[in-house]
Amino acid sequence: MKKIYSILKEFFFYSGEEKKNLDKKIPDLKVEAKDSSSILLVDLPHVSNQLVENLAVAKYFSDENGLKPCFYQPNVYYANRYSWIRAASRCVSGYMKSPRLAKRLGFSHGLSISSVSKVDFDNRDQILGEAFKSINSKDDLVSYKVHNVEVGRAVYDTYLRVTKSVTVDLESPRLRQLLDEAILLLCVSERFFSENKVKCLILGHSVYNSWQVISDVGINHGAKVYVTFNSRFPPLHAVHENRGLQTLDHTKYRKIFSQLPKEERFNCKKQGKELIENRLKGVLDDGVVYMAKSAYSSNSENLTLELKPGRRPLVFMLHAFSDSPHIYKDMVFPDFWEWIVQSLDFIRDRELTKKYEVYLKPHPNRFGYEDKFISQLDNMYDFINILDDDFNNKKLVEFHPAAIVSVYGSVAAEFTTMGTPVILCGDNPTSAYDFAFNSDDKDSYFNLIKNADFLKVDESKINQVYEFMYMHYIYNSKMSFEEYPFKRQTHCKAAKGFNCRYKEFSYASFSKQLDNFFADSTLS
After folding, report:
1. What does DSSP assign to residue 31?
2. Superkingdom of this entry's organism (predicted)?
């Protein structure tokens, strides 16, 4: 009974403090009625900080471009549950706290569970039958698309997150249910976009079933798609400009930089150099704002690595296993678990432990439940050493690692600057450059692992690091997190109770900031 009460309270009622602060923002966020056939669709999170952010950005687009403001409730998947759940969800959907607030502000219903029709179920069934026939491996699931929509990636990442797993079980009924739900949302969304002139989408994510599917469908129909609170940087991210991904399009970095005037290029590299040097001193910049603390700030003075004679450290920087691994164009391995397991199998089978002392450093921002999987790795391989995630990365360099290994981590630029080779495997922010050792397939990746002790950082390419740091973290940052009114949680400080980030928010000031941010993004 307590659990049911907790769910009802979370989705239907705001706390007293929340309600007080939200009521004060109603006049500021109210949108004018628009007599337009072109609409804007905004995602409605149930967390008030995120909801106010989405509604503020949506108001800006609606007012600036004359778009009819409508909302999207990410609850279509309930239509795939038991009939009584489906019926109940349809009845209460519009009475939940987020749509109630949106309606008070002048937003109309757009897309939700109430939009699902029999036609959508029929179309879903037809696609689903073919899907089960074509997905026979994890790689098949990752690459599975329907109408140019990355259904497989969305399902894969959703499965990892909701089941708290590190890899998928292709025989799992839950996986099949999620595939069913993703395809149903695809069918509902495609019909909605074909019947309505949607010009803009404001979403909290562009990953996981409820957001990646509608994001891809929107882009396919010519809509501009922006991600708000789950973009790492800049605070607002144009998905439609970045290959449909929630990450920046790094493929253009070198070309853009080469077109800058010579003197400007010199100053830009100087800024990039200053940024990486400060990061290695433990400063948390906007590019790593998602980190609880810097990997270069802890005191590891008394920590050491116990190395046997003739062996060099080979350090694997683990990722948060279930935190949407497929945010870049491709990966050599289907997920982070397969990456580390296949890497360790290769090291064991090739007897590379004769020359490497293998270390695994857990990701400091991992989910707590992932610790059991790290312990599982420790039990599976008797030759690995698990580092404390508080071990200062700079301290590792003192032990002359053969290489640092990651899938697409920020360590690529950081360790290269410190003279340590970095091995990567797949699309990553540094892919346009060659200062790190990147592999596009398993053969080249395993060859790099085998010969890691022969790798050396080319000092003549350090300037590439500075250029990358400028392009990735400074050039793309039209608005800093410090300037952004909905800035993320203060570093190293956990929120106690309700942490209102919009208490001092003023739409008039915010709209001026967005004028600059969206200067080249006027809808046509």
Report:
1. P
2. Bacteria
